[in-house]
Amino acid sequence: MLNMAEGVARLGALAESPVVSTLARAFADAGFDLAIVGGPVRDALLGRDVHDLDFTTDAQPDDILRVVKPIASAHWDIGRAFGTIGAKVAGETVEITTYRADSYDGVTRKPTVEFGDTLEGDLVRRDFTVNAMALRVPGKALVDPTGGVEDLLAGRLRTPTDPHVSFGDDPLRMLRAARFTSQLGFEIDEATFAAMIELRRTLDIVSPERIQGELVRMLQTAAPVRGIRILVETGLAEEFLPEVPALRLEVDEHHHHKDVYEHSLTVLNQAIELEHSRHPGEAPDVPLRLAALLHDIGKPATRRLEPGGGVTFHHHDIKGARMARKRLNALRFDADTTKVVARLIELHLRFFGYAEGAWTDSAVRRYVRDAGDELERLHILTRADVTTRNKRKANRLRKAYDDIEARIAELDAQEQLDAMRPELDGNRIQEVLGIAPGREVGEAYRFLLDIRLDEGIVGADEAERRLREWWAARA
C-alpha cells in the first residue's frame, strides 16, 4: 500500500539532489519558475526508481538555453520547436520544457504548439492525473490540480479532463492507459475505460511507429498481460493487432480444445519468468515476448473440427510465422526483430516430436542448426509453451526438454556444435573438385553439411573422399 509520508520524504530528497538543486537555483536567480513534472513525481511518491528528470518552466526556449548553458556540460535544442531544451547537468540528462497550452485539430495527433503561462494549465493538458503532478523547486511545493495523489492512493488511472476530449486530442493516450496498467498495476476508472471503447477507431490517425513504440514499452513491463487484456477488452487490439483477439475461438459443444487466448497469455507470463530466471537483471527480451504472445496466431486459420470431437491445427506454426511477419512489418518493426519472431514461431513445435521419442544425434544437430542464434530463446519459448494441467504430462515434457538441453550441451562440448559447418569450406571444395564459384559449390557445401549433421566430425580426408565420390556420381 502507498505510504504517502514516505513518498513525500522521497520527493523532498529528489528536490535536494545535486541536479535539481543546481537547476532550481539557476532558474530562480534568473527570475523564472521551475518544477519537476510528470513521471518523476509519480514514481518518487510510489517509491519507484526515478530515472529521466523532466522539468517545466515559464521561461521561453531562448531563456532556458541562456540559463542552462553556464551550468551544463552539454546541451541540445532538437525539441526547441516544441519548447523543449535538453541538457546534461551534474552528470544527469534532463529535459526542460516551456509551459504548454496546445490545441489539436482532431485529424492528426500533431498538436498546434502553443506556450502557456501557468503551471496548472500545463498540468491539466497531460494524459492522466497521476502524471499531472509537479513539484515546484526550490520551494518544494506539490502542485496537483486534478487529484493525482488521490488516484495514486486508489491505484486508479483517470484523465485530468473529460476522457472523450483527452483521447480525442491524442488517441495514443488510450494505449498509454493500457501500458500504465501493466507498468503501475493500476485499474482504469469506468468513464475512462468506456471512452476507450467508444473512441478506439480514432487510433487510425496514429502512425504505426507510435503504436509500435507503446506496444514495445508495454511488453518491457513486468506484467504486460494486464495491458494486453485491456487492449482486447476495449477493442483497441482489433485496430492494430487483430490476431490476438482472434485467438478467442468459439468453443463448439462437440469439439473441445484449450482456450488459445488464455493459453497464449499464460505462455507469455511463463516466458517472462524463465527469462528472468535465466538472465536476471538483463533488459526485457522484446522479440521473445512478442513470439510468446503471437506463437499460436495461426490456429484460428488452421482449425479443423474432426469427426468424433477432435480438433486439429495442422501447420499453424508455418501459418503463424507468415502472419506474424506481415503484422510486424505493418507496425514498422525492424527487420531483425521481425525475422527473429517469425523464426521462433515457425520452430516452436519442433521439440514436441522429441518428446514423443528420443531423437538421434543427427536430429539434435539439425534442431540446433535450424534454431541458429535463437536457440536460447527457443529453449525458453518451448518450455513456456507447456501449460497443461496434467501434472504427469507436464513432468514428462519438462524432463524431455531437460534431456534435449543436456544432449545439446554434451554434443557442443564434443564437437563445437555451435559452429555447425562442413569440414571443407567453399574454397577447399573448389580446389578438390577443380570448379569455379557457382551453384555446384553450394550443392557440394550442402552435401557436406548433411554429413556433418548426420555423423558429426568425420575428418577432412574422409570428407574429401566422400566429396569426390559424390561428384563422380553426379557426373
UniProtKB/TrEMBL annotation:
CDD domains: HDc, NT_ClassII-CCAase. Keywords: ATP-binding, Magnesium, Metal-binding, Nucleotide-binding, Nucleotidyltransferase, RNA repair, RNA-binding, Transferase, tRNA processing. Its cofactor is Mg(2+). Its EC number is 2.7.7.19. Residues 256-399 form the HD/PDEase domain. One of its GO terms (molecular function) is poly(A) RNA polymerase activity. Pfam families: HD, PolyA_pol, PolyA_pol_RNAbd. InterPro entries: HD/PDEase_dom, HD_domain, HDIG_dom, NT_sf, PolA_pol_head_dom, PolyA_RNA-bd, tRNA_adenylyltransferase, tRNA_CCA-adding_enzyme. GO terms for biological process: RNA repair; tRNA processing. It comes from the Bacteria. NCBIfam families: HDIG, tRNA_CCA_actino. This is Poly(A) polymerase. It comes from Microbacterium thalassium. The lineage of its organism: Bacteria, Bacillati, Actinomycetota, Actinomycetes, Micrococcales.
